[in-house]
Amino acid sequence: MPSPQPNILLIHCHDLGRYLGCYGADVETPHIDSLADDGAVFEEHYVTAPQCSPSRGSLMTGKYPHVNGLMGLAHGQWNIHPEVRILPQYLGDTGYETHLFGLQHIAQDTDRLGYDYVHSEGNLYQGVSPEVHQANRGRNVASVVSTFLEKEVYEAPFFASIGFFELHRVEEDNGRFGFEPEHYDTDNPDEVQPLPYLPDREGIRRDLAEMHGMVYAADDALGTILETLDSTDLSDETLVIFTTEHGIAFPRAKGSCYDPGIEAGLLMRYPGMIDSGERYDELLSNVDVLPTILDVAGYEIPDDIEGKSFYPLLSGDKYEERERIFAEMTWHDMYNPVRAIRTSRYKYIQSFWHLPDVYLTKDIFASEAGREVREEYGTPLRPYEELYDLRSDPQEGRNLIYEPHYDETRIDIAQQLRDWMEATDDPLLTGPVPPADYDKMVSWPGNQDE
């Protein structure tokens, strides 16, 4: 039987989605696949936001972005509300020693997070300079984690948040955002499998081939940590969680509430509790991860947590499946107010502003893949409502909002979304959400009345 309070490693990285071998992607990820083989894979795990800080904030608080306050990027002045507690704070209450390795990107002030020990500098993502993030590349983070485990400089049980820089795009001298082919191994663009939701074009293939190098680096880093757990005899008493923040940095993925934007990998291994080789297809949201961890740690889940523990799914107890998950976006590098609901069959998306057909974040807009599609995606205005039947249209290419046959479905699912927004006091219901630096904008002398 597993330890009553296992050590917990929460390993996460940028912009990876489910682009992994164990999810059927055209890339070799042997160490991540090995973790999948030894533990469980969650096939239908989605995030609350297709962007970094809001998604990570939900992972670490068990609350939706518009509830915890992190409706935009942490280095863009958005903050988790002061009264909202974070995972290491909960685990600290129940006797865990808590550690931060690598990136976190949910708070400018690391003290706000409540870790006992911070092992990394520059852990808040504040740009894309490779120099800034050298220490947070997967191989370097994994090396620090391995030294920590080997030296046994901890009190059990311990919790460690481990964040890799990969797979974030980096701005090059020519203004293009790519995946640093000079720093990582790449594959042959002619041999990569095209993405099913994008046209098969040369620039997209080149970007995918480059991205593979960062996938390999993240996989190698995880492999280093798993090997160290084995060599230190910690594997049997450690819950290992590997997850991703949102979809890959390509058009119609990152920055989009289509499935490629909100899909995320989730793998868990804990011998004695999680059976090897299990694959679960229940709908999960990343707000569910925190309450599940608290359940495993024996901590009573607070009533204000919006996620739903899926520990019963793992332990074989009665588990009431989710019928829907919710996703949202408000601010990134521009205003993009969107709310979405997904069931096992339907996706409904509501936009609350005049927006381009497909929003491209800055790094995607200036990428080779972005240049291939930005004219056709940027010119038409996006409809305020979108409805997709995922059973017949998994790529979300045919908007059914005006199809009479789907009127009843549209009315029902739109009401479900509205009910959720009202229940969670979504600020969009009262009008546009000002940017985080609004007070600074209006206080500029040129904006003041004479």
TrEMBL record:
Domain (Sulfatase N-terminal): give its ranges. Answer: 6-299
Pfam families annotated for this entry?
Sulfatase (PF00884)
Q: Which residues form a coiled coil?
A: none
InterPro entries, per database record: Alkaline_phosphatase_core_sf (IPR017850), Sulfatase (IPR050738), Sulfatase_N (IPR000917)
Q: Does the keyword Hydrolase apply?
A: yes
Q: Name one GO molecular function term.
A: hydrolase activity
Keyword Hydrolase found: yes
Annotated keywords:
Hydrolase
Residue ranges, annotated region (Disordered): 425-450
Where on the tree of life does the source sit, at the highest rank?
A: Archaea
Say which family it is in.
Belongs to the sulfatase family.
Its name, as the record gives it, is Sulfatase
